[in-house]
Amino acid sequence: MPTTDTYHLYRYTPSIAAAAIAIVVFAILAALHTYRMVKIEFIGYIGRAVGHYRPESVPPYIVQSIFILVAPALFAASIYMTLGRIIRATHAESYSVIRVTWLTKCFVAGDVLTFFIQGGGGGIQASGDPSKVKLGENVILGGLGLQILIFGLFILVSILFHLRLRKQPTMQSKSGDLKWQKMLMVLYVVSAIIMVRNIFRVVEYIGGREGLLLRVEWPIYCFDALLMAATMTIWLIWYPTTIWPGDRLAGDAERGLPLAESQVVRGVKR
After folding, report:
1. With CB atoms counted within 10 Å of each terminal CB, which end of the chain scores lower, N or C?
2. Interhelix angle for 58-89 vs 180-207, to 10°?
């Protein structure tokens, strides 16, 4: 705990050891993901490490608060796009509750909205003005609540698509080369992990600065850092299915012609 009379942004002195471990973990995962993953968590935990030495400094507090908070919103976009690719790969567009051309756009748009709401709330909370801390918490709560709602709707859409395709499989879904069911299982797992993380952050902010989750440091590493590290690791091992048309098919697509049945489909790793 800080011992001086200076106003501190943290209710505790951030652990340099825990922040250093998180920096190393996310640095390794970010390096492995390269362009696939946004290195936002890595930057956030650097802010926490700096906060160990400068707990009264606003800039590192803003960095760690915003970057760690909004990371799942950016990560979720790749999850939404993966479902759209699975639907197209299986030629099961008619089984989607939402038109596939709008599926990714709708969920990503909602994600961008929650990103800015949470980012704005984090900025207000970290402004250094004690009178605005509660306002920032309420804004963040609104963004997190909306994110949970959107994510819940996405999981429902995914499950309905899955059930319909299992009941009436398309010719493409029967292909042994297309691991669409395994990819959906991966989506369910990472979605559940992110949902648990978001619920934790909601409970954290409902408790406020006097609540247990903001008075001690270990919960953010157990229910945020650890869960997001697990998500990134799963995504690294079972990377989303990608459709890569061959040269002739790409040329047909550019001319507005339908793709042939011989399109190349790459599945997740076995």
Report:
1. C
2. 150
